[in-house]
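tool_call predict_complex ligand=zinc ion
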Amino acid sequence: MKQNMQRKEKRYKKTVRLFLASLCLGLILTTGCGIAGIEEQPLPAETSKNHKQTDAGPWYLTLVNRWNPLPENYDLELAEVEGGELVDQRIYDSLMEMLEAAEAEGLAPIVVSGYRTRAVQQRFMDEKIAEFRQEGFSESEARELAEQWVAIPGTSEHELGLAVDINGDTYDIYPWLQENSYKYGFIFRCPADKQNITGIAEEVWHYRYVGVKAATEMYESGLCLEEYLE
Ligand SMILES: [Zn+2]
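tool_result ok
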């Protein structure tokens, strides 16, 4: 934690600038391709039940998606990143290295969403259901629609503490992350062409830690996490 605090202090001066930058980008995202930080998850046309993870494997390869809920009594220790978001403390150093590398490229990266409790994920779901209710849908219709856009509580990678949503002051952050995140153990988790397998529409801001070895193999092979674990 002491090291974390030092890092936090070192990066603190950038906070205000980054926060303003993320606000600007947040506006763009809100109007353009959805709100970064809230899972947008249209139901894929063809969903497969074949992506059940059979054995547990190492913690960093835990598969969580709509077919694989969070393990029971999932326990984790959290570390706070600049801006106040939390992540599993085991990925903190790798995340900081990646952010610092992006920072050195002038990309002003910031974590806008990290660990979420079940309750927070439930709140996102409830808000989405309320939105559809206001548009005149019945309770069951509203729920069904909401589940196309928000991960069902218990099935969001953010509840694992291993996923982060990252913004920058321009769109350039996203191609940079796609080309470089594997060096730090993170993968572009939800590419557009894997939607039927991941169950999630493209989310350019959502990165998932899987360790450098797996991330490099997935980057080089083009496999998504579900395919890689098969
Ligand atoms: Zn996310």
